[in-house]
Amino acid sequence: MQPIPARDRLIVALDVPDVDAAEALVTGLGDSVTFYKVGMQLIYAGGVDFARNLAVAGKKVFLDAKLLDIDNTVAHAVESIVRLGVTFATVHAYPKAMQAAVTARGEASLRLLGVTVLTSMDDADLADAGYAARAADLVAARAARARAIGMDGIVASPAEATAVRRIVGPDLAIVTPGIRPAGTDHGDQRRVATPDMAIRAGADYLVVGRPINAAADPKSAADAIVGEIEAAIAARGEA
């Protein structure tokens, strides 16, 4: 994998109610942020066109659609996403869904990420959902399958980043939600880490929402996180 500039490692989650709010946040952040996540809340409020427009404007876009359906539906959804020009799109890490997505993507530049276990879930939540495996074990199994199928990256919590890196090797991207700078509220996240901890654990990209979106000065909050990423990269011994 080519070296990733520190600023490009920060993905700001546009978890806002509408396109107007997203546009205001993007404008306010300016050149401090190069990469944005458009997730379900915004997708269902006009966010698909907004994602396309962001890509046209030169921003990188992570379309967090979390695809999971019958093979044919996943395949056609990926074909549509390819035409948006976004950088990343997510698929729940079920083997058939991932295989359908990889086949439909073909030689397009879209990078497909397998969602392992949501960062809002812990072992007790998985047990309630009927899973016998612990979160770490399920993440590991799904990461291995994603690599074998030909996915481009993994979405996992910072707690599993080191183990996932050993499984997927150096070439697959590891994207970590659940990032909370020291002293900030965890909200509904369970398996969290600071930016420094996540980068040192092996993460490539950090998804950050509320600590930036809800900050009194979002631009300064973003710049501070980029600074922490830069320091962690240096400590990890990378350029």
UniProtKB/TrEMBL annotation:
The protein's superkingdom reads: Bacteria
Keywords of this entry: Decarboxylase, Lyase, Pyrimidine biosynthesis
**One MF term in the entry's GO annotations:** orotidine-5'-phosphate decarboxylase activity
Which top EC class applies here? Answer: lyase
Q: Which reaction does it catalyse?
A: orotidine 5'-phosphate + H(+) = UMP + CO2
Query: In the Enzyme Commission scheme, what number(s) does this protein have?
Result: 4.1.1.23
Positions binding substrate in this chain are 15, 37, 64-73, 119, 180, 189, 209-210
Lyase found in the keyword field: yes
Q: Does the keyword Transmembrane helix apply?
A: no
Kindly give the PROSITE patterns that the UniProt entry links to this protein.
Answer: OMPDECASE
List the active site.
D64 (for ompdecase activity), K66 (for ompdecase activity), K66 (proton donor), D69 (for ompdecase activity)
Where the record annotates domain Orotidine 5'-phosphate decarboxylase, the positions are 9-225
Q: Name one GO biological process term.
A: 'de novo' pyrimidine nucleobase biosynthetic process
Q: What job does the chain carry out? A: Catalyzes the decarboxylation of orotidine 5'-monophosphate (OMP) to uridine 5'-monophosphate (UMP).
Q: Which PANTHER family match?
A: OROTIDINE 5'-PHOSPHATE DECARBOXYLASE
Recorded family membership: Belongs to the OMP decarboxylase family. Type 1 subfamily.
Give the HAMAP family listed for this entry: OMPdecase_type1_B (MF_01200_B)
- Name of the protein in its database record: Orotidine 5'-phosphate decarboxylase
What organism is this sequence from?
Answer: Bauldia litoralis
